[in-house]
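Retry 2 of 3 after timeout on previous attempt. Resubmitting C-alpha cells to design endpoint.
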C-alpha cells in the first residue's frame, strides 16, 4: 500500500500544528487512517501533547525529537515506517521544526529517491503568517533577526505551495492584495489562503495537495552560514512540570504565565519566535501561544480547577538559552507561591546547532 505523505513547513508560529489537527480531523471523519509526526530539537513537546489530546488514538501521533527531520533523516523515515506498519496509515502529515529550511534538498529529494515505491509524496506546503509575509514582501525583517527572516524567506523560495494562514485576521481587501503580491513575487508557485483555525480554504488546499504528484519541484539556494545564525540566535527551552495543590485554577495560571512572559520579553525587546504552554488535567486541555509581541497571545480550551495537572512550556525567543530558562522558571515560580507544589519532570534548554543534514541533494530528482 502506498501512503500519502504531506509535509507542512513554515516558520515558528505560522499555524502548522493547528493545520495538522484540522486536516487530521477532516480526514478521520472521512474514515481515513491518519498518522501525524511532530519534530523538535528536544523532547517534551506542546505540539505532541496537544495533537495526542485532540486525537482519538494517541498511537497516531509520533514524535521525532532531539534533532530536526533534515539532520536525522533515518529518524524521520523510522517514524513514517512506524505509522505505516503499526497504524496502516493511509495519510501521514508531518510538521518539521519551524526554524528549518532547505527541506526540498534534504527531505523531499531523498524521499523521492529512496522511498518512492512505498510513499506518495505530496507537494511541500509552506504556511506563513500574514504579518511576517508582508514584512518579507516589503523587504523588512520586522521583529525578527535578519538571519531568522532569511530562513523564512528561503522557506517561501523552496515551497511547492505557499499557504497564507490566519486569513480570519485580515479584511478581505487586504488579503486579496497580499495574495496578489505573493503571486507576483513567486510567480511559479501556487498560492493558497486559509484559516487553519476556522477551516476557511482548508478543503481547497487539501484537495489540491492530495491530488498532486509533483513534490519538491525546486531547490532554494541556501547559505548555511546565515541559516545557522538564524537558528542560533534563538534560545530554545522545553520544560514539563507537575503541579499539585488545592483547586488550582489552571486556566488562570496558564493565562498569567504567558501574559507575564509576554510583558517581560516585550520590555526586553526580545523577539519571540514562539512561546507555547499547555496544561492537561483529567483529560482536558488548555493551551496558549505568543507568536510575536504580547498582543499575539491566544488561549484556547479549558481545564478549570483541579488539584493536579501537568504543564508543558516550549519557548523560542531571541536570547541565550540560560537567560530564557531563568525567565520562564522565574515567572512560573512567582505564580506558584500560594501552596502549589511543583515537580520538574523535564527541562532542556539549548541553542540550536549548525544544521548538518543527513542528505543534501544539489539537483531535483
Ligand atoms: N487567528 C488565527 N490564529 C491561528 C490560525 N492558525 C493558527 N493560529 C494560532 O497561531 C498560533 C501558533 O499556532 P501553531 O499551530 O502552534 O503554530 P506552529 O506553526 O505549529 O508553531 P511551531 O510548532 O512553534 O513552529 C496559535 O495561537 C494558533 O491558535 C488561524 O488560522 N487564525
Ligand atoms: Mg507546531
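Retry 2 succeeded. Sequence:
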Amino acid at each position: 500500500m502506498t501512503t500519502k505523505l504531506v509535509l507542512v513547513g513554515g516558520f515558528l508560529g505560522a499555524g502548522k500544528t493547528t493545520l495538522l489537527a484540522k486536516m487530521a480531523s477532516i480526514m478521520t471523519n472521512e474514515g481515513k487512517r491518519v498518522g501525524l509526526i511532530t519534530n523538535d530539537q528536544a523532547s517534551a513537546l506542546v505540539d505532541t501533547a496537544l495533537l495526542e489530546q485532540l486525537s482519538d488514538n494517541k498511537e497516531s501521533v509520533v514524535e521525532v525529537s532531539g534533532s530536526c527531520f533534515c539532520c536525522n533523516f533515518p529518524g524521520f523515515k523510522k517514524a513514517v515506517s512506524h505509522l505505516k506498519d503499526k497504524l496502516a496509515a493511509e495519510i501521514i502529515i508531518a510538521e518539521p521544526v519551524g526554524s528549518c529550511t532547505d527541506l526540498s534538498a534534504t527531505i523531499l529529494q531523498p524521499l523521492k529517491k529512496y522511498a518512492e515505491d512505498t510513499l506518495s509524496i505530496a507537494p511541500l506546503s509552506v504556511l506563513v503568517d500574514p504579518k511576517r509575509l508582508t514584512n518579507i514582501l516589503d523587504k523588512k525583517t520586522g521583529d525578527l533577526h535578519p538571519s531568522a527572516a532569511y530562513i523564512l524567506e528561503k522557506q517561501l523560495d523552496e515551497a511547492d505551495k505557499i499557504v497564507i494562514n490566519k486569513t480570519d485576521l485580515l479584511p478581505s481587501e487586504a488579503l486579496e492584495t497580499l495574495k496578489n503580491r505573493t503571486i507576483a513575487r513567486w510567480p511559479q508557485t501556487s498560492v493558497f489562503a486559509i484559516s487553519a483555525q476556522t477551516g476557511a480554504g482548508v478543503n481547497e488546499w487539501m484537495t489540491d495537495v492530495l491530488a498532486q504528484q509533483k513534490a519538491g519541484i525546486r531547490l532554494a539556494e541556501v547559505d548555511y552560514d546565515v541559516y545557522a545564525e538564524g537558528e542560533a540566535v534563538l534560545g530554545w527551552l522545553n520544560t514539563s512540570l507537575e503541579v499539585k495543590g488545592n483547586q488550582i485554577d489552571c486556566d488562570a495560571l496558564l493565562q498569567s504565565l504567558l501574559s507575564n512572559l509576554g510583558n517581560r520579553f516585550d520590555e526586553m525587546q526580545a523577539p519571540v519566535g514562539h512561546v507555547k504552554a499547555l496544561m492537561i488535567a483529567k483529560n482536558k486541555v488548555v493551551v496558549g501561544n505568543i507568536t510575536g509581541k504580547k498582543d499575539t497571545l491566544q488561549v484556547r480550551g479549558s481545564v478549570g480547577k483541579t488539584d493536579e495537572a501537568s504543564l508543558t512550556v516550549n519557548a523560542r525567543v531571541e536570547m541565550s538559552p540560560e537567560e530564557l530558562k531563568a525567565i520562564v522558571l522565574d515567572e512560573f515560580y512567582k505564580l506558584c507561591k500560594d501552596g502549589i507544589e511543583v515537580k520538574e519532570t523535564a527541562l532542556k534548554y539549548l541553542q540550536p546547532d549548525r544544521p548538518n543534514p543527513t542528505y543534501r541533494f544539489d539537483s531535483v530528482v
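Attempt log closed. The pocket of magnesium ion (ligand 2) is lined by residues 16-17, 47, 95 (CB under 6 Å).
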